[in-house]
Amino acid sequence: MCFREKKWQYFLLVLFLFAGLFTSNLIGGFFDIPNEINLVEGQTYEVSQNLPFRVFVNQGQEDVIQLDTDSFKSGASFHINSIKGGTANLKFKLLGIIPYKNVMVNVVPELKVVPGGHSVGIKLKSEGVIVIEYSDIIQSGKVVNPAKEAGIKIGDIILKINDETLLNLDHAADLIAKSEGKPLTLEIKRDEKILTKTIQAEFCEEDRQYRIGVWIRDTAAGVGTLTFYEPTTKSFGALGHIITDADTGESFQLRKGEVLTANIVAIQKGEKGIPGEKRGAFDEKSGFTGSLTKNTKYGVFGTVREEITNEYYPEPIPVGLISQVKTGKAEIMTVLEGDQIEKFEVQIEKVFAQDKPSTKGMVLKVTDKRLLEMTGGIIQGMSGSPIIQDGRLIGAVTHVFTNRPEMGYGIFAEWMLREIGLRAEN
């Protein structure tokens, strides 16, 4: 009888604990612990939990991390001390018995970069040619559009015509004109899929040549902000988000690109509901130049030919991992006039726990009075402005809140560095 009573007591206790997971206090602690934690060698990381538990380091991994204790009461916390590079796995067990969470801890060497803030001009050359608009053809008073009839859509990228890879706009126009109305086979890229379309160009009476009924483009240009420069590889990252085509809204499929110094010549102040903007001019005679090789969700990347320096930080500074970012004071660096980099105070309002890359890793608020007076807060052209906290590069400005221009989002620097292999994926 005694054995049965103890068995039922144990069963009820387990039910009680699992029911407790769904209360507001306990569930927060359960989900606040990320599935993956990245630490720099020598870093200490605090983990808080609202449940009574024990945590175990996998056997043979004790030389990678050490814990200051392994058994905790409800509401307690513990520290992970990183020892050397490597990977370790933590297993959390309720009451030391019931498995409920596994966490991977990656310990990496410290990486240092030169913070940016420089205003950069970006020139892009697309893969193929981009369809940006339909253009109807008039024939004897009748309107026709071969492209629309063939199922070509705005935003499509025409890669080839009759198996001939397109080099530029003139090349595409020449192949269409020479067809003299004979069927053309187009290879098209749409949403990362390759499609084949057959189309017959029609003779346009207005400009006396054969056309397929679309406007196309193969270049784009704009102004943004450099986030970091890595001296050993001469690699750089900028913007913190992808470049999209202004007309189609689709991501710009890069074939090649250039980056160079830009001078800011005017500022349009942001207001509620109306984004502000930096207006810049490319400077091809001074500063730095380089090649742009990647246009990704997390920024644009490439290499530069000249060394890049920052007068505020003459020596490279450490890159802060997500685990080192916290709410509180920070600074951003950007250019408001000419090519002069300036520092401005901001407040990190919220930090999102992330296991996967995202352009929205933190919420920041501009608190610097001068920046607010000149720009109203965060404006277009400021994307990529480095965010520095406690002497570390922790991220870059990416987006503004349309109705609150003093506030915006930032991406973690860790995600940008992974894009070009400066921080290995786990």
Mean pLDDT: 87
Number of beta-strand segments: 31
Strand residue percentage: over 45%
At the third CATH level, what is the topology name of the largest domain?
A: Thrombin, subunit H
The CATH C-level class name of the largest domain: Mainly Beta
Number of helices: 6
Give me the oligomer status. single chain
Specify the helix fraction band.
10-25%
Q: What structural class do you assign from the helix and strand content?
A: mainly beta
Shape annotation: globular
Low-confidence stretches: 21-30
Question: Can you tell me the CATH architecture of the largest domain?
Answer: Beta Barrel
Radius of gyration: 28 Å
Overall tally of domains? 3
- List the strand order in the largest sheet: 10-19-20-24-23-21
Beginning-to-end CA distance, first to last residue? 53 Å
Topology readout:
Elements: H1 2-20, H2 24-32, E1 36-40, E2 44-48, E3 53-57, E4 65-67, E5 71-72, E6 77-82, E7 86-94, E8 98-108, E9 112-115, E10 119-134, E11 137-139, E12 142-144, H3 146-149, E13 157-161, E14 164-165, H4 169-178, E15 183-190, E16 193-200, E17 202-204, E18 209-211, E19 214-230, E20 235-238, E21 254-268, E22 277-282, E23 289-296, E24 299-304, E25 317-318, E26 328-335, E27 341-351, E28 362-366, H5 369-375, E29 386-389, E30 392-401, E31 404-412, H6 413-419
Parallel strand pairs: 1-8
Antiparallel strand pairs: 2-6, 3-5, 3-7, 4-6, 7-8, 9-19, 9-25, 10-13, 10-19, 10-21, 11-12, 13-14, 13-15, 15-16, 17-18, 19-20, 20-24, 21-22, 21-23, 23-24, 26-27, 26-29, 27-28, 28-31, 29-30, 30-31
